[in-house]
Write a structure and sequence with these properties.
- The longest helix is centred in the N-terminal third of the chain and has 33 residues.
- By secondary structure, the protein is mainly α.
- The chain is built from 24 helices and no strands.
Length: about 525
């Protein structure tokens, strides 16, 4: 399969044909997006190096720390990603990213003033809402700046910001905390502890970056694929419609407007997720985790049913596509293990191996940034290379990113040797990172240009509500219920690997045919292409 199957078939000559050069401006704009994503993950991942300090100051346990890093962020990131993904498909994506960057940077800075677990949770929710603007807008912009033949590479370069930001967050956080606490052992200005000062230090620069983002030029949507899409004259109407379809309790009214059958299905879904959340709460004793996830899963269910009624072509190419679902859920299991290992690496090394924060920044964080960068770039290039030779080539890279990190994770979390821990953590990051560009490009290849923002939001539902929402919490819960055994906690997440492998084996067979029939299936569902 060639690049012609990586998007809707082209009409006439486009930048996606042959080997047309990519304009220098596209590479410049991609560089700015990478900076945004670096800051995105600094603000998100810095919680890892601060976890033990927060645990001591606020009197919380590992299960709460897993909830704070994962679920409290993930649910709101995922839910608001849906209407914001719709807005990215209809409004100015550059403006949307700038506003979101300003919001999440402000909420990160406000985390520095938290004096309780509740206040920190609320700030974390705000970070999730703001960050939900970034990737739907960025994925859509990249797909309009780069031709299909380079899209996995460009998305991988963008995604490298994830690993760079996540890695250097340990270095930045460690340096700030140790120097602040050394200078102000009884608390500094405004009574702030070192972990609070770290939140302020990484949050405020985002406000300046938001102004830079506003200078980027908006590309013509779909033009590079020969399918130029006119601007929506009422972009916020779709955003508000999606917002009311995904935020409870308005979801009930949205279902009622579609008829008695839709209302009954919605209420049945609400009852199912409420019962499931109650059972899991009684089983684990952790209310917040399952309350948040129960609301999140119900809201996504409501939205998907509403999408089917409002936009059948988009529903058919995403939720109604076994190929699309196998790709995003298969990658969700990669994220499940990777998020747990990435978040708990620094707290584990501090507790079990006695490493101080500064050393963790230099020997865990900085190498992790390099490993993630190399992994995602090499994985993206390999995905594009394999796609030219095999129609399912990109999916093989996702399989590689699922299976090969397992021995490295096992080494890192069973050894008593600090050097071997660093080696295992480096390899696990390198290998798991290889799957991201391939998974992102695969999901984009299965929809039309006008659907890319919502497809990205749906892709991130898997990485957040499955990977981020469950992986770090499971590791923290297993640790908290087994005598603070973080080794056992992180390794328990490997149970996701067989599930992911089954999904990706199915994707190997389903993706080629689905990618080659995007326009036909959209037309069958009523799309005017």
């Amino acid at each position: 399969m060639t690049e012609a199957t990586d998007a809707a078939p082209k009409v006439g000559k486009t930048a996606g044909d042959g080997t047309d050069k990519v304009p220098a401006y596209s590479w410049y704009a991609l560089g700015v997006l990478v900076l945004i994503y670096v800051l995105n993950f600094i603000d998100r991942q810095i919680l890892s190096i601060l976890a033990n300090d927060i645990k001591a100051d606020l009197g919380v346990e590992d299960d709460y720390l897993g909830f704070l890093y994962g679920t409290a962020f993930a649910v709101f990131y995922a839910l608001f990603g849906i209407p914001l993904g719709k807005l990215a498909d209809s409004w100015k994506r550059v403006r949307l990213m700038s506003l979101g960057l300003a919001l999440w940077s402000t909420m990160t800075a406000l985390s520095g003033f938290a004096k309780s677990a509740t206040a920190l949770t609320v700030a974390r929710i705000g970070v999730g809402v703001g960050e939900a603007t970034a990737s739907p807008s960025a994925y859509s912009l990249i797909s309009d700046w780069f031709p299909a033949r380079l899209r996995a590479t460009a998305l991988a370069i963008y995604s490298s910001g994830l690993y760079i930001g996540g890695g250097i967050s340990l270095l930045i956080g460690g340096l700030i905390v140790e120097n602040w606490n050394a200078a102000y052992p009884e608390g500094g200005p405004l009574g702030l502890a070192g972990w609070q000062a770290a939140f302020l230090a990484v949050g405020l620069p985002g406000l300046l970056l938001a102004l830079w983002v506003l200078t980027l030029r908006e590309p013509v949507r779909g033009a590079i694929d020969g399918l130029p899409t006119p601007e929506d004259p009422q972009p916020f109407r779709g955003f508000l419609r999606e917002l009311f379809q995904v935020i409870p309790p308005f979801t009930v009214f949205g279902a009622a407007a579609r008829g008695t059958g839709a209302l009954a299905m919605n209420l049945l879904g609400a009852a199912f997720f409420a019962a499931l959340a109650w059972i899991l709460w009684r089983w684990t004793g952790v209310l917040e985790q399952w309350l948040f996830l129960g609301v999140g899963y119900y809201a996504v269910f409501s939205w998907a049913m509403g999408l089917r009624a409002r936009d059948l072509p988009t529903f058919r190419l995403t939720w109604g596509s076994p190929a699309f679902l196998c790709v995003i859920l298969g990658y969700g299991t990669v994220a499940f293990m990777a998020y747990a290992a990435s978040y708990w690496g620094a707290p584990y090394a501090e507790r079990a191996l006695g490493v101080d924060k500064t050393d963790l920044g230099w020997f865990l964080g900085a190498p992790a940034a390099v490993a993630g960068f190399l992994g995602v770039i090499l994985g993206g290039r390999m995905a594009d290379y394999l796609l030219e030779r095999r129609p399912e080539g990109r999916v093989w890279v996702i399989v590689f990113g699922l299976v090969t990190p397992i021995p490295a994770m096992w080494l890192a979390y069973t050894t008593d040797d600090v050097v071997l821990f660093y080696v295992g953590a480096f390899l696990a990051q390198l290998l798991s990172a290889s799957a991201l560009g391939a998974a992102a490009a695969s999901s984009q290849a299965l929809v039309l240009p006008r659907m890319r923002g919502l497809a990205t939001a749906t892709f991130f539902l898997a990485t957040t509500l499955i990977g981020l929402g469950l992986g770090p919490f499971m590791a923290g819960y297993v640790s908290a219920t087994n005598g603070d055994d973080l080794s056992l906690g992180v390794l328990s997440t490997l149970v996701a690997a067989p599930i992911g492998l089954i999904l990706l084996v199915a994707a190997l067979k389903l993706v080629p045919q689905a990618a080659g029939s995007v326009v036909e299936r959209a037309r069958e569902a009523g799309e005017a292409v």
